[in-house]
């Protein structure tokens, strides 16, 4: 479980410099495999999920909290404008401005029972900062970035010129995907966005070992008259998908009528912000659920090898955009490749 399966997930090759560079990642992964000296019943996909600590619940909670903060700040600005307008009206009439009670969290109604974060808006004059006295000119002892690196590079070049075989250290490898401009999205007063993330592991000779899918529906409303809308969703899935609604969404309504609406009909969805209303999860080993298949056909000829890779979209309802297939290569074996298809020779990937 340690060497043949997990180490290649983080290291390109079983070499000392590779393992030293990713030592902490390997330690965290091994910590998920072994607990108190006993092996845990986990697979590679679960280990990757645990180490990344990517929580959809936390994202939803942060989105709700940010929405509540924006609503509270907007309410406070409105109250402040009302106070200023009342003072102006009183000054025009020659009367003293009436006193108003303080407004805080009790004056703002939130969408959930979470505590609201309020702020008091106070405008103060910016203090005048005296100009700093000019420092006497002299030799600067500031830190020079890159100076040490240049000396090291010059030393390495001298060793190479003398015939020494220098093994270059492995730097941080990051393959940046080509940024393709997506077509503009036509957003109406009510906009719904569906996002799904799939992580799967297949064997060399075919066969799905594990597949995990996470999905979420984001609702964006830009018109207040649609703030109390109900969204109808076709809930006829028979694949065993685990569905979970937002805490403020009426779960009974969704179960009975497949409609997404708030529990309190007097409340409304936030305006001009993305809100996650429904999420789902699927874990399976059924090959028919794979949306994209990849086949690799190597053909050896003498001292070279021709490799043909083909991918096919299995789900007809989807559309492929900006597909990137990364193939790991042995260290130092990138010679002879077509540079048009090499993403990073230093990163040993094609």
Automatic annotation (TrEMBL):
Residues 187-350 form the MHD domain. GO terms for biological process: endoplasmic reticulum to Golgi vesicle-mediated transport; Golgi localization; protein transport; retrograde vesicle-mediated transport, Golgi to endoplasmic reticulum. GO terms for cellular component: COPI vesicle coat; Golgi membrane. Keywords: Cytoplasm, Cytoplasmic vesicle, ER-Golgi transport, Golgi apparatus, Membrane, Protein transport, Transport. Residues 81-94 have a biased composition (Basic and acidic residues). Residues 81-105 are annotated as: Disordered. InterPro entries: AP2_Mu_C_sf, Coatomer_dsu, Longin-like_dom_sf, MHD. Its main location: cytoplasm. It is a peripheral membrane protein. CDD domains: AP_delta-COPI_MHD (cd09254). It is found in: Cytoplasm; Cytoplasmic vesicle, COPI-coated vesicle membrane; Golgi apparatus membrane. The keyword Cytoplasm applies. The coatomer is a cytosolic protein complex that binds to dilysine motifs and reversibly associates with Golgi non-clathrin-coated vesicles, which further mediate biosynthetic protein transport from the ER, via the Golgi up to the trans Golgi network. Coatomer complex is required for budding from Golgi membranes, and is essential for the retrograde Golgi-to-ER transport of dilysine-tagged proteins. Oligomeric complex that consists of at least the alpha, beta, beta', gamma, delta, epsilon and zeta subunits. Belongs to the adaptor complexes medium subunit family. Delta-COP subfamily. This is Coatomer subunit delta. The lineage of its organism: Eukaryota, Metazoa, Chordata, Craniata, Vertebrata.
């Amino acid at each position: 479980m340690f060497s043949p399966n997990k180490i290649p997930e983080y290291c390109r090759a079983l070499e000392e410099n590779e393992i030293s560079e990713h030592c902490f990642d390997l330690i965290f992964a091994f910590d998920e495999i072994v607990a108190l000296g006993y092996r845990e019943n986990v697979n590679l996909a679960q280990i990757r999920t645990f180490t990344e600590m990517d929580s959809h619940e936390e994202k939803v909670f942060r989105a709700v909290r940010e929405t509540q903060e924006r609503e509270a700040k907007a309410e406070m600005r409105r109250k402040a404008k009302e106070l200023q307008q009342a003072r102006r009206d009183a000054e025009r009439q020659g009367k003293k401005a009436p006193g108003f009670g303080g407004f805080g969290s009790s004056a703002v109604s939130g969408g959930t029972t979470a505590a609201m974060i309020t702020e008091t808006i106070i405008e103060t004059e910016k203090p005048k900062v005296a100009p700093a006295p000019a420092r006497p000119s002299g030799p600067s002892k500031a830190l020079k970035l890159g100076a040490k690196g240049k000396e090291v590079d010059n030393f390495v070049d001298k060793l190479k010129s003398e015939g020494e075989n220098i093994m270059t250290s492995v730097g941080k490898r990051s393959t940046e995907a080509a940024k393709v401009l997506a077509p503009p999205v036509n957003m109406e007063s009510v906009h719904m966005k569906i996002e799904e993330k799939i992580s799967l592991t297949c064997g060399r000779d075919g066969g799905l070992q594990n597949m995990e899918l996470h999905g979420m529906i984001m609702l964006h409303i830009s018109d207040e008259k649609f703030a109390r809308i109900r969204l109808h969703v076709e809930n006829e899935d028979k694949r065993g998908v685990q569905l979970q609604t937002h805490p403020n969404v009426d779960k009974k309504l969704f179960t009975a009528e497949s409609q997404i609406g708030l529990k309190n009909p007097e409340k409304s969805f936030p305006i001009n912000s993305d809100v996650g209303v429904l999420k789902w999860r699927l874990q399976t080993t059924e090959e028919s659920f794979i949306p994209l298949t990849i086949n690799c056909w190597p053909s050896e000829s003498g001292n070279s090898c021709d490799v043909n890779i083909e991918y096919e979209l299995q789900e007809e309802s989807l559309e492929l955009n900006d597909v990137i297939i990364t193939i790991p290569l042995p260290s130092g074996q990138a010679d002879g490749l077509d540079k048009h298809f090499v993403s990073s020779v230093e990163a040993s990937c094609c």
